[in-house]
């Protein structure tokens, strides 16, 4: 059985909840990613910050990204899967919540992220088509 750990992109990093959005943007640029999981003071997932969040919900609203923290952008209940979860579980989680990136956790710690590119590289055409239809058609 193919697992989340098999298809995820390793090397994902947290951004602490207290970190400012300008620093988060610098980390995104350094890692060449468009999203960072947000960790609370206990190292637990409390949200995900995207480059779009920074632009649309901060900069475009006239806020200073040097004064807004990642925790202020965190919305809703963060979704994640364990590294040993099967691909069906990954797809169910992503489709059910219409999400495009999914943190992968092992022993309560971030070990990777699953993105659209990871799905495209590891799923069958049928699985990928189903995911695209469910995530983008309802958006």
TrEMBL record:
What's a Pfam family this protein contains? CBS
Could you tell me which InterPro entries the record lists for this protein?
CBS_dom, CBS_dom_sf, Diverse_CBS-Domain
Keyword field contains NADP: no
Family annotation (SUPFAM superfamilies): CBS-domain pair
Q: Which UniProt keywords apply?
A: CBS domain
Record's SMART domains?
CBS
Q: Which Gene3D superfamilies match?
A: CBS-domain
Tell me which residues make up the CBS domain: 8-65, 73-130
Q: Which residues form a coiled coil?
A: none
* Name of the protein: Hypoxic response protein 1
User: Which gene is this protein's source?
Assistant: hrp1
């Amino acid at each position: 059985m193919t697992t989340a750990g098999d298809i995820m992109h390793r090397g994902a990093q947290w951004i602490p909840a207290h970190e400012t959005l300008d620093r988060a943007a610098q980390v995104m640029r350094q890692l060449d990613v468009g999203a960072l999981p947000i960790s609370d003071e206990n190292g637990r997932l409390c949200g995900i910050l995207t480059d779009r969040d920074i632009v649309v919900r901060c900069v475009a609203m006239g806020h200073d990204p040097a004064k807004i923290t990642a925790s202020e952008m965190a919305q809703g209940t963060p979704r994640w899967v364990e590294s040993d979860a099967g691909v069906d579980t990954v797809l169910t989680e992503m489709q059910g919540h219409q999400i495009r990136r999914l943190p992968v956790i092992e022993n309560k710690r971030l070990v990777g992220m699953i993105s659209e590119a990871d799905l495209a590289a590891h799923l069958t055409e049928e699985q990928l088509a189903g995911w695209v239809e469910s995530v983008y058609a309802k958006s």
